[in-house]
């Protein structure tokens, strides 16, 4: 059955008359339309740009850079959000009728899908990943069964590379979900995609083929710009239009857009590549060190390590993954060694795991030293 937006989008959203401002039509000249302060911002130091003016509602210049970078067709395939987190929330709000519709997630996965669903009074259906031996892959038959049993599922959130799994999903399995008879929207969250080495990377160019595919990316990770809050949704123009109709009129601030533009310029991209190369080298070193750790207590490094973090099992004397010890190690590192990692042992298939973000060479060395000390203390 062909994908139909009318079946997925909430009726009140389809009927929405979007907020319009004069800037949608005119953005140059003497601007006396938006009750801004004509004298300028009250800042002690100069910041580039007219900060007394509301920002461009759509940031086409930034989008043009993303179109080039991700080899898309047009800016109409792009939506910019206040981080991917805003995109997640908006997708749930435009698709799911509170108290009625549902989303599907594939644990272990990023926590915000459930949090946003809960905030919007939307039920979460879980189809766990196959976690055997740290595979962290979709069970497409189970997803199909869940969708069949819950026709209210309007959104499926897939994460590749996954958080906290650090593992890319097999592209054939994503394609299988897209080509099933599921009639809702499939979201592929690619927050960490730039760290993928090899050919299991982005599915962004699939949006031309699948009208129900949304690919999310962000400048928070590979671009190192978590502070500006810029998330990206790529999808077919009809769906993007609905996101634009629904967002707050000026969601992305001028300084964020300027910094994004700079980061996406040729020089910015060269810098991103340079940092990424350094980070990937550090990832390899950290991985090898942890795999042959000089002090007992480190088990397997699970998953395929495709993102900028590693999932490290902490094991007990018997060599079994151990949440009690992992939690102790986590707390001791933070409270007595000033090294903060993330305890993920309670996530499905992640018993005993610490999620360790790859830092600079010096940060990683400190982590390695302090982890040895703490493992000795918890032996
Ligand atoms: C998988 C995944 N998606 C989305 C996000 C949120 O990204 P943003 O900073 O763009 O809101 C994160 C942040 O950690 C993440 O891990």
TrEMBL record:
Tagged with keyword Transferase: yes
Pathway: Amino-acid biosynthesis; L-histidine biosynthesis; L-histidine from 5-phospho-alpha-D-ribose 1-diphosphate: step 7/9
GO biological process: L-histidine biosynthetic process
CDD domains referenced in this protein's UniProt entry, alphabetically: AAT_like
Assigned keywords, A-Z: Amino-acid biosynthesis, Aminotransferase, Histidine biosynthesis, Pyridoxal phosphate, Transferase
Top-level taxonomic group: Eukaryota
Transferase found in the keyword field: yes
Any GO molecular function: histidinol-phosphate transaminase activity
InterPro entries in alphabetical order: Aminotrans_II_pyridoxalP_BS (IPR001917), Aminotransferase_I/II_large (IPR004839), HisP_aminotrans (IPR005861), PyrdxlP-dep_Trfase (IPR015424), PyrdxlP-dep_Trfase_major (IPR015421), PyrdxlP-dep_Trfase_small (IPR015422)
Reported cofactor(s): pyridoxal 5'-phosphate
Domain Aminotransferase class I/classII large per the UniProt entry, residue ranges: 32-371
E.C. number(s) listed in UniProt: 2.6.1.9
Catalytically driven reaction(s): L-histidinol phosphate + 2-oxoglutarate = 3-(imidazol-4-yl)-2-oxopropyl phosphate + L-glutamate
Family, per entry: Belongs to the class-II pyridoxal-phosphate-dependent aminotransferase family.
Protein name: histidinol-phosphate transaminase
